[in-house]
Amino acid sequence: MSSRIAVRIAPKLKASKSVLTMTPKAINRLKDLHSKYQETNQTKYLKIGIQGKGCSGSAYTMSWISDPNKFDEKVVQDGITVYVDSKALLTLIGTEMDYFEGKLASQFIFNNPNVKAACGCGESFMV
């Protein structure tokens, strides 16, 4: 008795959503911050990640790096390069990074469609 096995080659997969997009306000703020590092002749990139902390379990992290890790995702938009930590990729897919500047505070804001709940102060979230 013989049996046949059909093998189908899958077409190349295309990403349907970007890992991270940045608003014009965020781009402008990152350009300002990046220019300060260029004055000191240091090449630095912003790296965004997730850390376990806070009331709801996770919080965003942002740090300046010289060399990205091997599996970090490179996001380039309008001349700005940002890296996303490989451990945070699934959590951040489809996230929009914005920048808010008010009289009392200024901060980067992440509009993440994957968030299911957040704490009252807005510092942490749950996926």
From TrEMBL:
Positions of the Core domain: 20-123
GO term, biological process aspect, one: iron-sulfur cluster assembly
A Pfam family hit: Fe-S_biosyn
Role of this protein: Involved in the assembly of mitochondrial and cytoplasmic iron-sulfur proteins. Probably involved in the binding of an intermediate of Fe/S cluster assembly.
Family: Belongs to the HesB/IscA family.
NCBIfam families (UniProt xref): iron-sulfur cluster assembly accessory protein
Protein name (database record): Iron-sulfur assembly protein 1
Native source organism of the sequence: Furculomyces boomerangus
